[in-house]
Design goal:
Length: 343
């Protein structure tokens, strides 16, 4: 079982500044920071109309991420989650009227959990990014202002990392209810839960393909922590491995709205975590005879900062990702025009 996902955001320079701008300029235009006023922010997703984003961020004075939404026009964050417990993996409903996210605010010992986190922070130092599979994490949906909070999962263990099918009828998510993190699909109201993967190790970060026939995800089933990218048909009958290099960590795959390719984060771990550096890549996809195959791989980012968790806007014209490009080196959300295919 994967106890935690450990990632080191290295800052080793990989190219001169001029060549970085030239290389990234083929794919990214008008790179702009969009989150401000919060210690760290990341894992952002667009609303269906592309005018708002939802994301997780550390609020001032609290030790765990909370969920925030904001208009891209005015940039003012508004908290959606309850303000207590760990939260993650927010996502707009396809009609744009509600927000899905995972939260551990019902932890019966939440005060003890919070105190332990505060005590750790008080000792000083900044730990590496670590995601804990909190057994009190469940999936919720709420209005855009956080009201009418409805619980969709209530099984023992970790339930999180949820996202919707394009038609809004189903949610794919990660759950440890059978002993280790696997993928599940349920109806949008939380009913009719069915298991999609059942392999030792962690399967997570799932997203439906635009046509609803596939789910793309990350897994460390070959070697603990060494994540690779897979796709599985939504009926569970066909599974394809798209990356297969245990010297690299591959995570956060996300489909382009065309379904013809996906973007993801990769780092070379062959020399150990301290030398690993995260960049964004795309991989073309070829569908034929009921299966899918990976094609051309293209590197998108080259900056010395860590670039992770990329997502496309619904119209495919923008790319948003979490990066340490901010002047203070904190993780924040940036948006750029997506130029592939525009020229």
């Amino acid at each position: 079982m994967l106890a935690s996902l450990l990632l080191t955001f290295a800052t080793t320079s990989v190219a001169e500044e001029g060549s970085v701008a030239e290389s990234e300029g083929k794919y990214l235009g008008k790179i702009t920071r969009v989150t401000h006023g919060l210690r760290r922010a990341g894992e952002g997703y667009f609303s269906p109309d592309g005018k708002q984003i939802v994301y997780q961020a550390y609020p001032l004075g609290y030790p765990f991420y909370q969920i925030y939404a904001q208009s891209l026009k005015d940039g003012t964050p508004r908290r959606i989650s309850t303000g207590r417990g760990r939260t993650t993996c927010s996502y707009f409903t396809p009609d744009g009227k509600k927000i899905l996210f995972a939260s551990s605010h019902t932890d019966p010992k939440i005060s003890i959990t919070e105190k332990a986190a505060r005590d750790l922070a008080a000792k000083g130092g900044r730990r590496r990014y670590q995601w804990d599979f909190d057994p009190h994490m469940d999936i919720y949906v709420s209005n855009l202002d956080g009201t009418d909070l409805q619980r969709l999962t209530n099984a023992p263990g970790y339930d999180a990392e949820g996202s919707y099918s394009a038609d809004g009828k189903q949610i794919v998510f990660t759950s440890s209810r059978d002993g280790d993190p696997d993928l599940y699909i349920m109806d949008a109201d939380g009913k009719n839960v069915r298991q999609l993967t059942d392999v030792d190790g962690y399967d997570g970060g799932p997203f439906f393909s635009p046509d609803g026939k596939w789910v793309i995800f990350r897994s460390d089933r070959q070697k603990e922590h060494m994540l690779q990218v897979f796709m599985i048909s939504t009926d569970g009958k066909t599974e394809v491995q798209l990356t297969n290099d245990l010297g690299t960590v591959n995570w956060a795959p996300y489909f382009h709205p065309s379904g013809k390719y996906f973007v993801w984060t990769r780092a070379d771990y062959s020399r150990g975590p301290s030398s690993a550096h995260f960049h964004l890549f795309t991989m073309d996809l070829e569908y034929k005879k009921g299966t899918v195959a990976g094609g051309k791989v293209t590197q998108v980012t080259y900056d010395k900062a860590a670039d992770v968790l990329p997502v496309f806007s619904p119209d495919g014209k923008k790319l948003m990702w979490t990066t340490t490009r901010s002047k203070d080196g904190s993780s924040q959300l940036f948006v750029a025009d997506w130029l592939r295919g525009s020229k």
